[in-house]
Design goal:
The chain is of the alpha/beta class. The chain has two domains: 2-156 and 319-334, 3-Layer(aba) Sandwich (Rossmann fold); 160-317, Rossmann fold (3-Layer(aba) Sandwich). Helices cover 36% and strands 16% of the residues. It contains twelve helices and 13 strands. The chain has helices spanning 20-34, 69-82, 97-100, 122-130, 184-194, 207-214, 231-240, 256-263, 276-279, 292-302, 307-318, 320-334, and strands at 2-6, 38-42, 52-54, 89-92, 109-113, 134-137, 149-152, 172-175, 198-201, 223-227, 243-246, 268-270, 286-288. The strands form two sheets. It has a seven-stranded parallel sheet with strand order 3-2-1-4-5-6-7. Strands 10-9-8-11-12-13 form a six-stranded parallel sheet, with helices on both faces. Helix 5 (184-194) links the parallel strand 8 and strand 9. Helix 1 crosses helix 12 and helix 5 packs across helix 10. It is globular.
Length: 335
């Protein structure tokens, strides 16, 4: 089987720090190659992969203010589709733009929907479906009516990168974009009411929210900002936390930091929105609660959960090998 993986180019694959889509694509590419699949990864040309690397974008446009992402994504998609006749399948991880050009794809087109940024992009998905495109959701919660889904495939993680930590520290952790969607300000108040220090890690995606709702609380002791951390620091912070706070304000399609924390044995306290009821098992791997006071109370219960069991559950459900197995079944169904 010859597969073209069309990855995003906002960040390198795999990313040096933030970049959840790129991380998933990197693991899938390497996992497929290990199974004997002939894979070409279309990504930034500085990407690191076991697959054959192809593309036109020299480096990611995310950290380069001089690059216009719209232009480079158009060039990137056009290049991949121009070669699509060489493959048995094109697996798109780049959202709506390739779907707007689906009629130009000369192989079956499969798209993993990493979340819908807005209802405004749905016409591209519906148009592509008329040309035979098929879709995979990353949770049952994140499905749009009327699209031809073939499966739900939960993201997988490299379990070796997130080792089990039986003895956590005292701090709670808020990990992800600093944005109202991720509830960073709620996490600060939850930690205060629970009487524990909070570490915040992730890129600032809403500068005004960060300045008004987060920065005034950062004192380096009760609330500390660790920045946009890379893989090694990510694992250390997730594994060392007494619990991960995930008080999201939107219907999150998945949540990589949630399963990464659980792989380390760290319980998760999340608001029950989006995919969270599919990922967190209340009373076993964490708690689903609604509101700051309920979350603070859940901290006291979560820190008493069996971290070894949390790790075992996450390893069984969210390893990269399981994700690769699921996608191979989807490929066989389509091809």
């Amino acid at each position: 089987m010859r597969v073209a993986l069309l990855g995003p180019i906002t960040w390198r694959t795999p990313p040096l720090a933030y970049g959840p889509w790129e991380q998933v694509v990197a693991l899938l590419a390497d996992g497929l190659v290990a199974r004997g699949v002939e894979v070409t990864l279309f990504a930034t040309l500085d990407s690191v992969t076991a697959a054959r690397l192809d593309g036109v974008c020299p480096h990611p446009y995310g950290p380069d203010g001089g690059m216009d992402g719209r232009i480079w994504e158009g060039l990137h998609v056009g290049h991949c589709l121009s070669r699509s006749g060489e493959y048995d399948l094109v697996h798109n991880h780049l959202d709506w733009l390739p779907l707007a050009m689906a009629q130009l794809c000369r192989a079956p087109l499969l798209t993993t929907v990493h979340g819908f940024s807005s209802p405004g992009i749905l016409p591209a998905y519906r148009s592509a479906a008329r040309y035979g495109a098929r879709f995979v959701s990353i949770s049952d919660a994140d499905r749009a009516a009327g699209l031809p889904y073939v499966a739900t495939v939960y993201h997988g993680i490299n379990l070796d990168q997130f080792p089990f930590r039986p003895d956590p520290e005292e701090y709670l952790l808020a990990f992800g974009r600093i944005h109202p969607d991720k509830g960073t300000a709620d996490a600060i108040e939850i930690a205060r009411r629970a009487g524990r220090p909070l570490v915040i890690a992730g890129p600032v995606h809403d500068a005004a929210y960060h300045a008004e709702r987060v920065v005034p609380h950062i004192d380096g002791e009760r609330v500390r900002y660790a920045g946009n951390v890379g893989p090694a620091e990510r694992a250390r912070l997730l594994g060392g936390a007494a619990a991960l706070l995930h008080p999201i304000g939107f219907a999150e399609p998945f949540g990589l930091s949630v399963v990464e924390a659980m792989a380390c044995g760290t319980p998760v306290i999340a608001y029950p929105r989006g995919a969270m009821p599919e990922l967190v098992e209340p009373g076993r791997t964490g708690y689903l609660v609604d509101g700051i006071e309920a979350a603070a109370d859940a901290v006291r219960r979560a820190v008493r959960l069996d971290r070894a069991e949390i790790h075992q559950v996450a390893a069984g459900r969210f390893g990269a090998d399981r994700m690769v197995d699921d996608y191979l079944r989807v490929y066989e169904q389509i091809c």
